[in-house]
Amino acid sequence: MLDTVAVENYRSLRRLVMPLRGCNVVTGPNGSGKSSLYRALRLLADSARNGSVSALAREGGLSSTMWAGRGEKGPVSLKLGFAGEDFGYAVDFGMPQEGNTAFNLDPEIKSEAVWAGPTLRPSALLAERSGRTVMLRDADDGWRNAATLRSFDSMLSQVADPQAAPELLSLRERVRSWRFYDHVRTDSAAPARQPRIGTRTMVLSHDGADLAAALQTVAEVGDSRALADAVDDAFPGSKVEILTSDGRFEVTLRQPGMLRALTAAELSDGTLRYLLWVAALLTPRPPELTVLNEPEASLHPDLLPALAALIARSSERSQIVVVTHAAALVEALRRQQCDVNAVELTKEMGQTAIVGQGLLDEPSWHWPARG
Fold first, then answer.
1. Per the domain annotation, does 270 fall within a domain?
2. Tens of pLDDT along 175-233?
3. Residues 14, 23: contact at Cβ < 8 Å?
4. Calpha distance 67→137 (Å, rounded)
5. Vertex 79 angle, CA 77 and 80, to 5°
6. Could you tell me if residue 332 is inside a domain?
7. Of 2, 138, 192, 357, which one is least surrounded by beta carbons within 10 A?
């Protein structure tokens, strides 16, 4: 489980060191930095797939993503990191070196570090990258040159030999398990409304196209009781039924007083979105971390208590971060029997800050030095 996430110089996140617990809800007014925090977490996950440099380039390069209020002198530096009780990781992006290339928007990875424990210390370092050189700590506490990487390759994705670097391999696979759900479609042409060929689906896809197969998988090999409870909490007396025909799966919802079940094409946007969250959060294969961006979108306010109960139940198996505009969802989560970490963001002088957090309140955090 992550204890801390840290961001420096990403959009409005001039310096943010945020504590995390099992169930976390991030709120704040429009423009306070919630979306930037969500994107920063996605960039960290991209590092494990060697996709963070291209993701930053798609945002327009470092010049577009750096904190706009930056005025101090020094090298351009965008830093991202996280830490838990067992491992920590940080990466520092900088401007590319001038050269004969058309890829001038691609930032370079200037430094990376992986360490044991929650705080970066020289004695805790397991792997360190400076420029293009990656050094690994040996069993006898010495250091050896493990690889020379290209400026756009992350050591988290490229240096993960099970014999030479088992810690990096373990950390990489854990980060790759992180899941992000952001504005899954529920319009009339949404993939989730269409009958689809179905196979056992342990993880709901990001577009929700395999919703029917994912719900059937939960019913057969997951927590069928939790599935029934989640649907009944939101729509009392109702139950989900999955129709199958020639290998195609379709979601239907049977409700009290109705002569037939409603098909996915007939469900309201809010009802369909809630069923998507049920499939995502009751996955039989829970990830290390699940991040939901504005899950309340298109939900009726009466569904927020049921959504909060679903999130709280999921947080027993997977660390959860919810980014939301809905104060009612925050309050509903606080009423659940789980340890909710409610973080309110604000913006002061163009810089995102955590309400009520002073310098002495934030978790201990140190960035790796550039070579």
1. yes
2. 999 999 998 899 999 999 999 999 999 999 999 999 999 999 999 999 999 999 999 99
3. no
4. 34
5. 165
6. no
7. 138
Radius of gyration for the chain, computed over Cα atoms and rounded to the nearest angstrom: 22
Please check whether residue 21 lies inside any domain of the structure: yes
**Which residues are within 8 A (CB) of 1 and not within 5 positions of it... i.e. 6 or more apart?**
20, 22, 84, 85, 288, 319
Distances (CA, A) of 92 to 31, 80, 81, 161, 240: 25, 7, 9, 23, 47
Mean pLDDT of the chain: 92
Torsion of CA 292, 218, 276, 271, to 10 degrees: -130
Identify the domain containing residue 229 by its residue range: 183-286
- Cβ(362)–Cβ(20) under 8 Å? no
Residues 6+ away with beta carbon under 8 Å from 210:
196, 198, 201, 204
Separation CA 359–CA 362 (nearest Å)? 6
pTM flag (> 0.85): yes
* Integer Cα distance of 128 and 143 in angstroms: 10
193 with 93, same domain: the answer is no
| Closest C-alpha among 212, 219, 211 to residue 185 | 211
Same domain flag for 126 and 108 = yes
Residues 152 and 226 occupy one common structural domain: no
In sequence order, which residues have a C-beta less than 8 Å from that of residue 190 and are 6 or more positions away? 184, 208, 272
Domains identified in the chain, total number: 2
Q: How far apart are CA 336 and CA 310, in angstroms?
A: 10
**158 plus 199 within the same structural domain:** no
Give Cβ neighbours of residue 294 (< 8 Å, ≥ 6 apart): 182, 183, 323, 324, 325
